[in-house]
Amino acid sequence: MSHHLPASHLSSTPRPTPGPSHVRTIWDGEADVDPASLRPPPEPEPEPEPSRWTKNAAFGPSGDPRRVTGLDAARGMALLGMVALHTLPAYNEVTDGPTLVWSLFAGHAAVLFGVLAGITVAILTGGTTPHHGRALRRSRVSLTMRAVAILSLGLALSELDPAIYNILPFYGLLFLLAVPLTRLRIRGLLVCATLCATVGPVLIFLTSRWNGYTALDNPGFSTFITMPTDTVFTLLVGGAYPVVTWMSYICLGMAVGRMNLRWLVTQIRLLVYGGITAALGYGISAYLIDYAGGFARLYELTGGMDADDIQAVLDYGPEGHLPTDTWWWLTTSGPHSNTFFAVAASSGLALLTIGAFLLITRTLNDLCTPLIATGSMTLTLYTTHLLFLTALGDNVEEHSSMYFLVQVVVILLFATAWSLARGRGPLEEVLTRLSRGCGQLLVPVKNTGGDRSDSDDSARTAQERHSHTTVRPENEVS
């Protein structure tokens, strides 16, 4: 059977002409023509848009990426708070009470410095993984040298008879007493902090009741020679920052420094636990004074003080130390009263502030650059602030607002410019080179031998750098 296709189904293309076909060249891999060149050229990539202005693009990378800038921001706020306290008035003539600046920063700014100093000690000695072996001995030597340098600087500044209470001699002694505690973990450090907060106020109270020494405003080198006993008692129990209670802030800060401060959960815990601790400290003290008969007992048992005098101590703190007529004074929580409730309240506010700035700098780090730069060189700036107020003398009271504004503007501008150009502050650079050099000189690094502590600590440090859990602590002083 045959099938016939309609004519419409026939191809309309021309038929090949008879004869031999054209011979095509076959590429054998050795010809000059690359088959890839026969492909269509790729489309040109669009030119990248110009990036926005950044601090690193303008000035180059500044700071160490391992550094937790939230700590610097908190330290910068503490410094500005102390500048405000030392310059602006404490009494508000309109409300007949403390000013807002006094209520916010009195006692709390210095305590924040203390807690941050404890964090510095923890970072210098290993951070989340404390040093051991030779590395621990080296860090202890460096820390001891740092403490001696700060103590010596503070005693030298006290010879100028500064217009404010000089905190540096107390800080130097606190750093020195923290050296034996560098092997403790978080739980042991918290126990030490609680012990100092509980026993320290009692020791101060009993020593003040004994009244066998003269409390000095600013102990210096000359007082160590002429009044050695009074100077030691002032540093330990009688000064504005007595070591027996302020060691609680150092121990608390060391415990915080052993935590991973880059974790969001750690930052939130600091915020929450700090708020709870501050509320309990102030709340229990207020209940005992206002509702449990504490104020009445203070009025009845304290000789030579009326109700206004007692309220002034509660609002502004004692002049020197608390009265010792009754143990009820240990239930107060005023500025620099150094009672258990005052220590708890100020410690809680310090933790809350640190947690808040750690959270803020997670997203607003660039906006906090002036504050971070200020906190990275507080030793230099605090020393300059002390010298400035000492030179002005009583003239500060006449134009306190103007002098405060001048100091804040100069501090922020200088700190930002110096940090972008040079990094560490001038005094911080000297202190770092001195302490680190002494540590490496007295306990040199050994890459070989039976003692493996150096290599083990180096391995841990490298691992921490990789996980971004360590920071450079050179600027974290006072």
From TrEMBL:
Record-annotated Heparan-alpha-glucosaminide N-acetyltransferase catalytic domain positions: 67-265
Protein name: Heparan-alpha-glucosaminide N-acetyltransferase catalytic domain-containing protein
Entries under Pfam families matching the protein: HGSNAT_cat (PF07786)
UniProt organism field: Corynebacterium glyciniphilum AJ 3170
UniProt feature, compositional bias: Basic and acidic residues: 449-478
Keywords recorded for this protein, A-Z: Membrane, Transmembrane, Transmembrane helix
Lineage per the UniProt record: Bacteria, Bacillati, Actinomycetota, Actinomycetes, Mycobacteriales
Transmembrane segments: 103-127, 139-157, 163-181, 188-212, 232-256, 268-289, 339-360, 367-389, 401-421
InterPro entries with a match to the protein in the record: Bact_Transport_Assoc (IPR052529), HGSNAT_cat (IPR012429)
Region (Disordered): 1-67, 445-478
